[in-house]
Design a protein that fits this description.
The complex is a heterodimer of chains A (about 350) and B (about 325). Chain A has about 350 residues and is α/β, with parallel strands linked by helices. Chain A contains twelve helices and twelve strands. In chain A, helix 4 packs across helix 5. Chain B starts with a strand and ends in an 8-residue tail after the last strand. The chains are: A alpha/beta (about 350), B alpha/beta (about 325). At the A-B interface, helix 6, helix 7 and helix 9 of A face helix 7, helix 8, helix 9, helix 10 and helix 11 of B.
């Protein structure tokens, strides 16, 4: 069951110039994106810097007003709601930010930071809120003695736990995680990833997990969408994406990841050049400037995201060709990344437990 | 093989209001000519301070208090400022993590590249400019002539990192220190930059010291790897040995806690707790508080670094079985 539906969402930022601030163009940060979030599952959104993944997350939280398209949450259109309606919606969709140093007010104590959403939404009396905050800290693995400390007294991983406690304070349905572990050291990253997984199971949370790190995404996500220059170029469930990456960009991205234990590498097959500017995205397929398989069609016509297999969508004119090629490769060289066992998708118990029930 | 860089017992101390803190605490290693040493560790483990110490870039309240660092037999730590200036940029070059802050924003990329050529090489401005343009094209910057007169902000992140590499190479250094050169970059750009560094290393026969927190990058690049924890070396081995048979519990746990493509686990193994502050260095081994292997002596004395098998050194009283 999908809890959040995004259809053809566009988010353009105007570029203004001159004395009268005339609009001279726009940055097309998100340019026609559609997907569904299924309840209790995690959708991973990967892509390189500037591909629009964070903008997309923020637009869904309605931190921006989308330029076009629609977002609906539990069947209700939330694309243009405002005021009290928007506030009520935000109880259900929360966000965890990348930088645990910048996303917490340095002049507030932990108890104020975590309790703020509860106060804003008037969820109980002062003493009830205090009790709840203590409970939340316990859930994310902090001590009750931490209540009156300030953010600077914590390490990066602990700060991210505070951010997580704040995000789950209102018992939301959906949490948008915007690169929550990118700023953390490896040993701390594992702790936070485990915490996110535990919380999802316990409260039946739905995650939109934004990251540039494919190995983290593989660990956490049920379904993965790859973005390039404001568009989704490939979308599939986890197993399919890693065993049959079909879009040339996804393939290049997978090849570019440095792997532990592969031994010394002399030459990496990599993409040439940089991502083009989203102010003047290339005509036709957005990826054609870096694609070695481009043809005339790619230069002139933009491909749509089309289904090539059960739940596997690719936006490429030559998708059929690549799909076949990849399967052939697999049998030829037994490439290590492709032959992992398929884990049966685990069933998650439905019915959301609230924080009160847990206590 | 001839050892090109030899660092011995390096100690770098910072004076803080709570007392002196050793950010680097007795680090020793050597790199043969033309090889790559990788230094890995988490934030605050002293990997950057080690490199800065070699370059003579430690400013008060920090100070190199002990040890030696020899480049082709010449001790870098005993040089005065003017001697260091002759060496920096010419014999040793450094690539920094953040190319935006490492460049001067009010000078063009070209001016910054020729600056050090004019200082170190006996050539005039025209010749230096010509060389700079050659270098820019060598590192794969399209339209090098027009990029030469661009300001740093006009270049993308990957492009700036390339320009910095061009600058580092301008005087054909024999020793290159790369401090997290790809951390701020996207994976596809990172792959390009790593290829570039390796190509150039082969071409000029440079010795490279590569610092990163990314175990994957180190695994693909380094001949020899040094793992640091709280200012000390805890394990040193060839890349192959280190990643297939880690012996120090810290290296072992670090590798385990990494999500790996193609290997799915329900729960990632973690390292309990967090790195203590340097000022509260625990008694005995620095890792004892988080170590599942800790035994009695770990709490009392600091384990010496010993060679467990040929070319595999570990500082641990109770190493993980190979």
């Amino acid at each position: 069951m999908s809890i959040l539906e995004v259809r053809d969402l566009k988010m353009y930022f105007p570029i203004k110039k001159g004395f009268f601030l005339r609009e001279v163009g726009s940055v097309k940060a998100v340019d026609g994106v559609s997907f569904d979030l299924k309840k209790g599952q995690t959708l991973g959104l990967v892509g390189e810097s500037g591909c629009g993944k964070s903008t997309l997350g923020r637009a869904i939280c309605r931190l921006y007003n989308p330029t076009a398209g629609s977002i609906s949450f539990e069947g209700k259109d939330i694309t243009h709601i405002h005021g009290e309606e928007l506030r009520t919606m935000r109880r259900e969709i929360q966000m965890i930010f990348q930088d645990p140093y910048a996303s917490l007010d340095p002049r507030q104590t932990v108890s104020r930071i975590v309790g703020e959403p509860l106060r804003v939404h008037k969820m109980g009396s002062k003493s009830e809120i205090e009790k709840r905050v203590a409970k939340l800290l316990d859930i994310v693995g902090l001590k009750s003695t931490d209540l009156n400390k300030y953010p600077h007294e914590f390490s990066g991983g602990q700060r991210q736990r505070i951010g997580i406690a704040r995000a789950i304070a209102l018992n939301p349905e959906v949490i948008i995680c915007d690169e929550p572990v990118s700023a953390l050291d490896v040993s701390i990253q594992a702790q936070v990833l485990n915490l996110l997984k535990d919380l999802q199971k316990e409260f039946n949370l739905t995650y939109l997990f934004i990251s540039h790190d494919l190995s983290v995404v593989e660990h956490l996500c049920d379904e993965i969408a790859v973005m390039y220059l404001g568009q989704i170029v490939e979308k599939a469930d986890r197993d399919t994406l890693f065993s049959h990456p079909t879009h040339p960009y996804t393939q290049a991205l997978l090849k570019a990841i440095p792997r532990v234990g592969k031994g010394r590498v002399e030459k990496r097959v990599s993409l040439k050049g940089d991502v083009p500017s989203p102010i003047h995205p290339p005509k036709g397929c957005a990826f054609h400037t870096r694609c070695e398989f481009k043809t005339d069609k790619c230069l002139n016509e933009r491909p749509n995201l089309e289904q090539i297999n059960n739940n596997h969508h690719v936006s490429c004119w030559h998708r059929d060709q690549f799909l076949i090629q990849e399967v052939k490769n697999e049998s030829e060289e037994n490439s290590p990344q492709l032959d992992h066992p398929r884990t049966p998708s685990q069933s998650r118990d439905s019915g959301k437990r609230s924080i009160e029930q847990r206590a | 093989m001839e050892e090109h860089v030899v660092v011995k017992d390096l100690v770098t101390t910072f004076q803080t209001k709570h007392g002196p803190v050793n950010a680097v605490d007795g680090v020793s290693y050597s790199i043969p000519k033309g090889k790559t040493l990788g230094i890995v560790g988490e934030s605050g483990c002293g990997k950057t301070v080690t490199s800065f110490s070699l370059m003579g870039l430690i400013d008060p309240p920090g100070q190199v208090t002990k040890g030696s660092a020899k480049l082709s037999g010449r001790d870098l730590l005993s040089l005065d400022e003017s001697e260091l200036e002759d060496i920096r940029g010419k014999k040793i070059a450094m690539i920094f993590q953040e190319p935006m802050t490492a460049f001067n924003p009010v000078l063009t990329v070209g001016e910054q590249i020729i600056e050090q050529m004019l200082r170190h090489l006996d050539i005039d401005k025209d010749e230096a400019s010509k060389r700079a343009i050659e270098l820019l094209s060598l590192v794969g910057i399209p339209e090098p002539e027009s990029r030469f007169s661009n300001y740093p902000h006009q270049l993308s992140g990957g492009m700036r990192q390339r320009a910095m590499i061009a600058m580092a190479l301008s005087c054909e250094p024999e020793f290159l220190i790369a401090d997290e050169p790809t951390t701020a970059l996207d994976v596809t750009i990172q792959a390009q930059i790593l290829d570039l560094i390796q190509d150039i290393q082969k071409k000029f026969g440079m010795t490279v010291q590569f610092i990163t927190h990314d175990l994957g990058v180190i695994s693909e690049l380094a001949d020899e790897v040094l793992v640091m924890y709280m200012g000390r070396v805890c394990e040193q081995a060839s890349g192959e040995d280190l990643f297939s048979k880690p012996r120090h519990p810290y290296t072992h746990a670090l590798l385990n806690s990494l999500p790996k493509l193609g290997q799915r686990v329900e729960k990632l193994p973690t390292i309990e707790g967090q790195v203590p502050a340097l000022i509260n260095r625990p008694e005995g081994c620095a890792f004892q508080g988080r170590c599942p292997h800790a035994i009695d002596p770990c709490f009392r004395s600091q384990p010496p670094i010993v060679e467990l098998s040929p070319n595999h050194k570990v500082a641990c009283f109770n190493p993980v079985e190979a």
